[in-house]
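Model it.
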Amino acid sequence: MKKRLTGVFVSLTCFSTLISFAMGGGADKAAKKTIRADDGVNIVCEVRGKGDTALVFLHGWCGDREYWKNQVDVFAPAYRVVAPDQAGHGESGKDRKAWTTESLAKDVETVVKDLGLKRVILVGHSMGGPVGLLAAKRMPGTVIAVIGVDTLQNAEFKTPEEMRKKFLEGFATDFQGTLRGGFPGLLHEKTDPELKKWLTSRAEAQDQKMAVGLMRDMTGLDTTVLLKEAKVPVRCINSGGGFKFFRPTDVAVNKKYADFDAVTIEDVGHYPMLEKPAEFNQKLRGVLKEFGGKGSGK
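Modeled.
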């Protein structure tokens, strides 16, 4: 009887392990690392997986590495997966003198070099898209593609100056109030209420000085130049619309400046990787197939 129970236990354990791998949960436990940027700011990141291609997940403005919680374990069985808290966010250092998108891109380069990554795909949400393009420019031959997530919709779009000033003044004088007032405009009506609360609370907890500095820098970027100078294929997984601050993706416009293409997900707001993680992961796998590497399906 004891042997029979032992056999059943072993069988169940093996079956559970197989299911775990199939669901993307068979990856090695994440290692938490702290990497020092050139100016001394600490960049905290989680590293997992062993693939020959690395996926570096870059969160957006006022986010953190937890925004990728539904992706990192899923893709780690096939890829080296890195999820940093960008400087000023999450657990990373906040004592930088000047907050610029370029400085974040330099941090990405520092992380890639410190970890010895040789073949990298940057996956950037929102602000992470421009950061990814700037980082790709810094690392020719190492970064092989940038995959944007609800970002880089139209390289020729310019935020109206009055709107830009209004947002910057609002964040400078009442950061949390402005954030709380504008945040619903980033979310779809079908977005889960608990997720809305989670997103809002995490954004409100971020550093105000960093947030205003990066917002000011970001809204002055020329995306046409970023796309041209990145010199890598750019793919996007963007929202299909249905929220206040939605911007439609114009593939034809972006193709003038880069090797660009995009897919969309319907009934999500600005956070498709959190709002519909299963569909997002399926779309990401499809995009990754184009670039080969272990686990790509090629």
